[in-house]
Amino acid sequence: MRLATIEYGGVEKAVVVEEDIVYPLNAINDTTGQQWPEDLYELIQPPTFSSFRKWWQEQTIELKSKMNVVETPSYRPLYRHPRKIWGIGLNYTDHASDLDEKAPGTEPASFMKPDTTIIGAGDSILLPLLSDRTTGEAELGVIIGETCKDVTREDAAKVIAGYTTIIDMTAEDILKRNPRFLTRSKSFDTFFSFGPQLFTPDEIDHVLNLNVTTKINGRVHRSNKVDNMTFDPYELVAFHSQVMTLLPGDIISTGTPGAVVLRDGDVVECEIDGFPNLINPVEDLKADREDEVE
Fold it and tell me: How far is residue 132's CA from residue 96's CA, in Å, rounded to a whole number?
């Protein structure tokens, strides 16, 4: 199943995407008399999500043809307020060398981000006044589907609701001044683009075979396979569930194959095999201030 959130009638609504047809949850409910949650975060909560997936599979093509669909969807972030966003630093050796650092080998280098960083497809990434070197990083996102603690790597797949595309940002000059500034360097508004679609695990043949690519202005900057991560998605879920209880809707952004420096007017993309590309334009707030001075 593929899910997303779009702007529909001025409100952000969950949708099912099936063979490029976009079915809003409110239209699904209106046609069938059901009362499924119309907010994606609420929809993926257990046990609602498993019940909805089973129910949707049982619906006929004839019934679906009676539902109102959206021809030109305006995608928004999958949801706005996850309980936790975990980011993983230096999870590919190549990216560690970009920062003149050594990739962690015994445990993940993780950090947390606030939900005020969240934007969606097409929204502008705003380069902050406090940074002269901000980077964008394409990443595979893991979305937790069950409340879980102390999960083994072998059982991690059972608690994953799905995967998505992410562009994570870092004020790299702030981080390089002092590694203790990591939270600040990661937490500016617009520093976490999220979506446009959630793929449930059955939509992906083998997650470790996916290629993750950071693109800038249509050109490939860096690409690598999930299998080349130091800590793969299942290990990340298992490890972080030992730190704290993971909740449905929590996000783990699994690390980038390569970060690209962002400049005013750039367009940065996350490209992952099979997923629609996540694309965001870049706007430098310092350029706006310079225009005001002139």
Answer: 20
Count of domains observed in the chain: 2
- The Cβ-side half-sphere exposure at 256, using a 13 Å CA radius, reads 28
152 within some domain: yes
Specify the pTM: 0.93
Q: How far apart are CA 130 and CA 186, in angstroms?
A: 12
Residue type, 114: P
pLDDT tens readout for residues 72-90: 999 999 999 999 999 999 8
CA distance 7 to 123: 13
Residues 176 and 275 in one domain: yes
Does the residue 22 lie in any domain? yes
- Summarize the chain as % helix, strand, coil (round to 5): 30, 35, 40
Nearest residue to 13 (alpha-carbon basis) of 2, 27, 1? 27
Band (196; pLDDT cuts 50, 70, 90): very high
DSSP letter for each residue of 81-105: --S-EEEEES-SHHHHHHTT-PPPS
Single out the residue of 245, 250, 210, 221 nearest to residue 84, CA to CA: 250
Do residues 127 and 282 lie in contact, with contact meaning Cβ atoms separated by under 8 Å? yes
Could you read off the pLDDT of 218-249 as tens digits, one per residue?
999 999 999 999 999 999 999 999 999 999 99
Smallest CA-to-CA distance from 271 within 170, 80, 157, 121 is with 121
Contact 167, 213 (CB under 8 A): no
Query: Is 214 in the same domain as 106?
Result: yes
In terms of domains, do 25 and 129 share one?
A: no
Is residue 69 in some structural domain? no
Q: Which domain does 268 fall in, by range?
A: 85-293
71 belongs to a structural domain: no
pLDDT in the model for residue 79: 98
